[in-house]
Amino acid sequence: MRVLITNLFVSYNSGTEAVVELLADGLRRGGHQTMLLAPTLGEMADRMRLRGHHVVDRIAEIVEKPDIIHAQHLTPCLTALARFPDVPAVFSCHSAFFEVEAPMLHPQIRRWIAVDEACKAKCLSRGVPANRLDLIYNAIDLERFKQRPPLPSKPLKGLLLTKNFEHQQAVREACARSNMQLDELGPATGRFSHQLEKDLLQYDIVFATARMAIEAAAVGCSVVVCDARGFAGLLDTANMEAWRRMNLGVGLLTRPTTVENLMEALSKFDADDAAEVCAYFRKVAGAEHFINEHLRTYSQAIETNVQTTDDERSLATASWIEEIGVSRERRRWFSVANEIGGAWRDSSEQATLLDLLRSNTKTLESGAAALTDLGERVKSFGSDALLNVAHDSQARLYRLEGQLSSLSSSVVDSAASLHNVAHDSQARLHRLEGQLSSLSSSVADGSASLNSATQDSRAALHRIDGELSRLSNFVNESKRLYSGMIPLFIRKMFRRARGRG
């Protein structure tokens, strides 16, 4: 069977990318031909090509007609449906949270797959027929994710795996209070790993959701299920079966991720219980059943006798384009663009960023004014060297001020420029934190330069004061000597006058 799999990315080892890799490897081991279409490719695509998979970012590079389309994510799914209008498709929903994952009806899509109960409910709410919806839980490659040695009695090292960054500080503080070292990986951190199976072996407790949490549990780490969307708690033997049905995902995140909730979860750490959780997931989350269930769904989709005309299929495709194609109207494309990391930000977010930029600009203006005043004071002493130091520092601050002003103007001029300023999260929101941190460092550098110039100025002023003091003493002493010499000179003149007389 030739299977065309679509996904937004084959690049960073995210959740759906890991599913794509596991599925494609399993299908290929079973003798099936795999083709992968993703708009964004990276090192992961190169590694998969080395294992014999056909991975492309342009539909024209798919030469052979597939027998089935396994579609993930709406936009590449649409591309595949339009290119092969007579090929049946299966659509897989991996998130009840993101619109790019939510199903849309199309006559080519004959069956749907949900990875947990929340995704199942999402599919049903969008009109997917219940009798054509399969529930296939996520799985992992147990040969790749080996079991770690027994956990210590107290966790010493933690790992945060995350796509979002709003909860990072809470996790950091909870780990600091617990005297636990914390490392971070994932799109929100800017750090990625191509060998997570090896990395996990080093950690006692992992903060994650969904597939990443399942992988950590199967390795034998204790797992706290949480992210920026919310908090579930510590995965244990009492909740593991129920939470498995929810994919350890967003449907469980009913409380906020706070330091207090995290501390409560960490206080429940139990190495023996985590070992039982590990045994459970290694029993139920193996890849073999996962692959067989997908093959069964593919066969059902191919065998389903759905009588549709060319006109019905082309109309459905055109309707998808109306929803997903960028237009002035905020249709479904707007949500998808923001989820992927687009530049269309809400006005409230723009206002917040502008306020921050203006605040930093005022700080720099204040620093520049203070430095200008210092320069005027120095000028009155006629010290050229000191003036040069002050002017250099002032120029640095003006350059920083100009950078901020430029950024602020860019934000006002276009939402796309705002995205560049805010940079890097969901998948790109987190980059805002890094950029503002860099900006803060620049301001700090400017302040340091100002402080240094001020200190140099004070030292020079002290030196000048000393010279003036010594000069004043010299003048006073000269006056004293002069005053003492005048009477003596007059007396000598009187003696000479008397001598002549």
Summarize this entry quickly.
55% of the residues lie in helices and 12% in strands.
Could you characterize the architecture of this molecule?
55% of the residues lie in helices and 12% in strands. It is of the alpha/beta class and 501 residues long. The protein has three domains: 192 residues, Glycogen Phosphorylase B (Rossmann fold, 3-Layer(aba) Sandwich), CATH 3.40.50; 128 residues, 3-Layer(aba) Sandwich (Rossmann fold); 141 residues. The protein is elongated, with a radius of gyration of 35 Å. About 6% of the residues have low confidence.
Topology-level CATH name of the largest domain: Rossmann fold
Please give the order of strands in the largest beta sheet. 5-3-1-6-7-8-9
Structural class: alpha/beta
**Distance N to C terminus:** 143 Å
Provide the number of structural domains: 3
Low-confidence stretches: 343-347, 408-433
Number of helices: 17
- From the spread of the alpha carbons, the general shape counts as elongated
Can you name the CATH architecture of the largest domain? 3-Layer(aba) Sandwich
Q: What does the radius of gyration come to? A: 35 Å
Strand content: 5-15%
